[in-house]
Design a protein that fits this description.
Helices cover 74% and strands 0% of the residues. By secondary structure, it is an all-alpha fold. The radius of gyration is 22 Å and the shape is globular.
Length: 426
């Protein structure tokens, strides 16, 4: 038996056993497995039900928190996520081809159940710190490994799928979204070597995004870097660091990368970019025929029905998360989905300002959540990421922070302004 496979057979059951007593450990393991997919690295994808085992063990260990369920249902982010299930479910029920939607819908609902464990199990700022460490470690493990490979190969393109889990766009966006988590975790680790490692990993992670040949992920990474600069107190050193991270990768693939990115402005000159515009127009036209419940969640019904709208055979999804949700599940799903993302980003901005004034030591938590969500909000306009696990994980981490933040603010109650705390919760 290969060593990597044997290692997983030791690590995953150990996490499952720990999850029965400390469900937060199981949740961290579940997140790590979902993001990194170490079974692909061990060359045994789907040979063992690792993800299912982690989910079951974490759910079993979480029963002790059942009494807190009424509390999490009062969190606006949770309410919006649950509300989103209604139009999505109706779109499956009334879709043109329910069989095309059902498997993806069932998987989405299973993911939603696990998402509810975030605010249920994560009860303290220390829990969130450990969760952010998990995200950072996962990003370093995924982006650092692939980016280092590309750099050592002199600029190898990573424009193929990562197993069946990510295509090149999804893989690059995941790495871009996890980079700011790595950056902000530097502020709270005590070891200078770990801080140095979290800084240096930005180089291969940025390289992995560049080598993916994904325009949307590159734009998302650029927006994330801009957010980091705007939020930073030391902008010049950060700018130098980011330029050093981007420079080597862009230099290695400069001709192809510049040519690829230029198609954003002159989309009609490149088939892939021009086709995206045609898909967006077709999605809007199709939505006008199915405005309330859409054609069916998951994207396959859109592909099946798209030929009359595009005047040629089509095998692609919409390549825009917002339009995909609109045409798949209707106007109400689109409004809830967009509101969930934008509303959480805005609330996290308010949280950043309050933490900066009251508890600057915890400012990194909302910062580490807001930056990747902003990157997703931009990057998802170029691909259909409406079922993207990582985005929902970050949303529900924000939901956990929503209920933890008032307790942290209330700890030094004598120094707090109650009206400010109450205003943030609205």
């Amino acid at each position: 038996m290969p060593f990597r496979e044997l290692a997983l057979l030791l690590v995953i059951p150990s996490i499952c056993c720990a999850a029965l007593f400390r469900p937060s450990i199981g949740l961290f393991g579940y997140i790590w497995f979902a993001v990194v997919r170490p079974d692909l690295m061990a060359y045994c994808p789907d040979k063992y039900p690792f993800s299912f085992a982690l989910a079951v063990a974490t759910l079993a260990g979480s029963f002790r928190y059942a009494g807190f369920l009424p509390q999490i249902f009062r969190i606006p982010i949770v309410q919006w996520l649950l509300l989103l299930q209604i139009p999505i479910g109706l779109s499956v029920l009334f879709s043109e081809g329910p069989f095309l939607s059902m498997d993806r819908y069932v998987l989405f609902e299973r993911t939603t159940i696990m998402l509810l464990l975030f605010p249920l199990v994560l009860r303290t700022s220390q829990d969130l710190r450990h969760l952010l460490y998990t995200f950072a470690f996962s990003g370093a493990m995924l982006g650092g490994r692939l980016g280092t490979f590309g750099l050592l190969q002199g600029g190898a393109l990573l424009n193929q799928s990562y197993g069946y889990v990510y295509d090149n766009n999804e893989l690059a966006l995941a790495i871009a979204m996890l980079m700011p988590v790595c950056w902000y975790c530097r502020q709270v680790v005590s070891s200078k070597w770990i801080r140095l490692g979290l800084t240096l990993v930005m180089l291969p992670c940025a390289a992995a995004v560049i080598f993916s040949n994904s325009r949307g992920a590159s734009i998302a990474m650029g927006v994330i870097f801009l957010v980091l600069l705007l939020k930073s107190k030391r902008r010049l050193p950060l700018l130098i660091c980011l330029l050093l991270a981007l420079g080597p990768a862009i230099y290695l693939v400069r001709d192809q990368y510049v040519s690829r990115m230029s198609t954003i402005q002159h989309y009609e000159d490149e088939e892939s970019a021009a086709n995206r515009v045609d898909l967006w127009k077709a999605a809007l036209a199709m939505w006008e025929d199915y405005p309330v419940v859409g054609v069916g969640f998951g994207g396959r019904n859109f592909i099946r029905l798209s030929e009359p709208y595009m005047k040629h055979r089509n095998i692609n999804v919409v390549h825009n998360s917002y339009l995909q949700m609109l045409v798949d599940s209707g106007i109400f799903a689109f409004a809830i989905y967009t509101g969930l993302i934008v509303g959480t980003i805005l609330w996290l901005g308010k949280s950043v300002k309050l933490m900066k004034r009251r508890l600057p030591d915890l400012e990194y938590i909302p910062l580490a959540l807001q930056a990747p969500l902003i990157g997703f909000a931009v990057g998802s306009t170029f691909y259909s990421h409406q079922r993207y696990d990582l985005m929902y994980m970050l949303l529900m981490t924000a939901a956990a922070w929503y209920q933890i933040q008032p307790r942290e603010l209330a700890a030094p109650a004598a120094e707090q302004a109650p009206e400010e705390i109450a205003a943030l919760a609205n």
